[in-house]
Write a structure and sequence with these properties.
By secondary structure, this protein is mostly beta strands. The chain contains no helices and eleven strands. Strands 2, 4, 5, 6, 9, 10 and 11 form a seven-stranded mixed beta sheet that branches. A four-stranded antiparallel beta sheet has the order 1-3-8-7, with no helix packed on it.
Length: 114
């Protein structure tokens, strides 16, 4: 059984910063790609950022230059540093890991308000 536990969401004003973390535990032998998605009501889940086991990263155009994804392989943890937050970044953020199969976190709410 694999569990993903997310933390770090909350309320922040525009221009502020938050860091999300997602720790995987359980029967994990190797983790390949780790990703962050986000979703707002009535919309499809959107891929925000991804990072491979080798450290290669990709970002959605809407967050390039503002968000940074990183990982700690020893801790099976992925992070999302979010800077210069905008109201349109408001969403529930989900982590996702590929470890034999795909696992999802429970989601954490990020609200950017003025």
């Amino acid at each position: 059984q694999v569990q993903l536990v997310e933390s770090g969401g909350g309320l922040v004003q525009p221009g502020g910063s938050l860091i999300l973390s997602c720790a995987a535990s359980g029967r994990i032998f190797s983790v390949n790609v780790m990703r962050w998605y986000r979703q707002t009501p009535g919309k499809q889940r959107e891929l925000v950022a991804s990072i491979t086991s080798g450290g290669s990263t990709n970002y959605a155009d809407s967050v390039k230059g503002r968000f940074t994804i990183s990982r700690d392989n020893a801790k099976n943890t992925v992070y999302l540093q979010m800077n210069s937050l905008k109201p349109e970044d408001t969403a529930v953020y989900y982590c996702n890991i590929q470890a034999g199969r795909i696992y999802w976190g429970q989601g954490t709410q990020v609200t950017v308000f003025s």
